[in-house]
Amino acid sequence: MKEKLTQLELFFKSSSFDRGLRLGVGIIVPFAILYAVGYFEYAPAIVVGVLLNAPSDIPGSATRRINAILISILLTMLVTLLVLFAKPIFFIVVLVIAVVSFMVSLIAVYGFRASLLSFSGLLSMVLAFAIQKETPLEIFIQVGLMGVGGLWYLAVSLIFQKLAPDKDQNQLLSDTLQALGTYLRLRTQLWAGNDQQDELLRESFFLQNQINDKQETLREILLTQRKRSGLSPYEEKQLLMLRASVNIFELIEAMHINNKVVHSIHAEHRNYLLPFKEVNNILGNHLIHLAELLIQKDKIPNKHVLLNALEKANETIASYIAEIGLPAAREGALTLKTIFDYQERLVAEIRVVRRIMANVKNTPDLSLKKKDSAYFLTNQEFGLKVLTQNLSFKSTLFRHAFRFSIALLFAYLLGYFLDIQNTYWILLTIVVIMRPSYGLTKTRSTDRIIGTLIGALFAIGVVLLTQNTIVYAVLAFVSLILAFSLIQRNYKFAAALITISIVFVYSLINPNAFEVIQYRVIDTVLGAIIAVVANYTIFPSWEADNFKQVLLNAFKTNNGYLLAMQKFYKDTATYKLAYNVARKEAFLAIGNLNASFQRLTQDPKSKQKNFQLLYEMVTLNQAILSAIAGIGNFVVNHKTTPASAELQRLFHRISSTLGIAYEILEQGSASKNVPTEALMDAEEKLLNKYVQLSNRRDEEISLGKTTMDTDTLHGLQEAYLISNHIIWLKSLSENLQKTTEHYVKTSVQE
To answer: What family does this chain come from, according to its entry (predicted)?
Structure first.
């Protein structure tokens, strides 16, 4: 019960509910004022303007948010004007639907925020069919009032932003910490090596992409603001928390030690891994709790539970050595020590977050210079070149725009010739649920139908209980606010609330509420069927066909990350910025790869070409990222010895192999082969460094020196971790090349 109350409190304090309130204020104030002054007939047009322009109000830099809403206002006014003037003439309105739906859909090529602008434009086209205006004067007044409504919503948004300037950033940070905590716990489950590995990996793909998206939005908000006018003290702390979250993300990835090595060492002593799993679970739960407290503003929990768990894990290493005995226990102990070091650094980063949240003064300073901020911002191009590059059936978004316009035309003609009441409800359903991906469209269609049925049943229950118009008005208003708050979190529930709102709004106009409910359900089902069928039959976009480019980017950025880490290994001071930028690019590319793979799994089984090979390439790229992060993280936190010639040769071989895999995937074959010189000697020499240090340590033990100094320990760790990780990387890159060759050959045969 307490947990449910906590979740309810978090929802009402969230930025999602805050945006719902903005919409509520944007709607109720014009109604109240215009009713009071006797001009109530103008209120609906203003409210339509509010509804149409609210979708563009998403987290991001202030400039981009304002510009997006202003562009949205102009777009929705123009589209409404065109449709209202075209409606009386059948052939012209058909042409307008075809052209407007196609062109407005293509706006989405400019990114996520642009896709919301596109949605507003399409929504305005559909709602224009519900507006009954005959004369040019009436049309211009309607469109003008919609513009006023849009500007009014912009003013409301800015006021809310002024009252709570850090709400969006706090929510994004909270969501990031929540996802990191869940991701850490999930990665711990992967240690178990059970039958649910594939399912857990796919869930981890989703979480990785979610974390990347949140961190990217935070970078846009905080680094853009810092670059332009500087940050407030509180925003500087938020930037510190973002940096800590990035470090935590890398540490979780780096902790993905080669599981085969871990389990082969601890095959008969897996109980020694349990305390380390427990530490991860405690740290994950703590991150989730901090995420909640960031919104609730409650007292920070005691840190001793973290330190006690860490201490217990540390004691386990000594117990392991005592039971197995040296030198037999050395490799296992070093593996456990490596995991412990990652966890110790995780605790250190979590304590940074704790200190920031507790407003402790001695938090670390930001080392990122303002001029370097630009390297961490992902710039979206807005030139005409982006649009022209997508004017081809090779473009997923072009095909979607073409398919979408045909679906809307078919729905309109169906409604026109069958004289369906409120045809625009069918169009509205298509606009809301149809996406470039078949799988997402199908999922949203199902959620939309189920949500509509739930909402309809609720509305029927209310209508049977009362015919009170005040109750209808209150329910319509409250359900609309909640729907807008939940539309990104739970689309099914949001669809139910939207249905409730629409039914009761129409019930205020039409006393026959059951008729409204009936048409709402039928039109929703019709719209959903048209959307799904269109996605499946009209120039369909299957994710397997689009997967190549996403894979190529992952190959490229992983190789770039490897080379940046190699330079960083030589000179940490000179190449720190380049390393961090390459890390960011690699993590984003893997996130995009994971998101693409998620979409692939939603396509019909018959369209998932070479699924197993694609899955192998995804997991191999994921493992390569983790292995590079493992070496890079060790270099960041330890003083390392100069890279040997053998290590440099292995770095070069791995990079060459990744480059060849890229070329095979891109062109179908490689212009050069992997260097033929044997690297067994390089691997042996690299491993010999660890053997030599290990033998030296055995001699010290035989002479009675049982306590090992820090330098010796770090030397052993470096020799063991680097040699194992670099050999693991070599094996992963070779497997990736073989899998890529197999994939290309199989694709050619098909």
So the answer is: Belongs to the YccS/YhfK family.
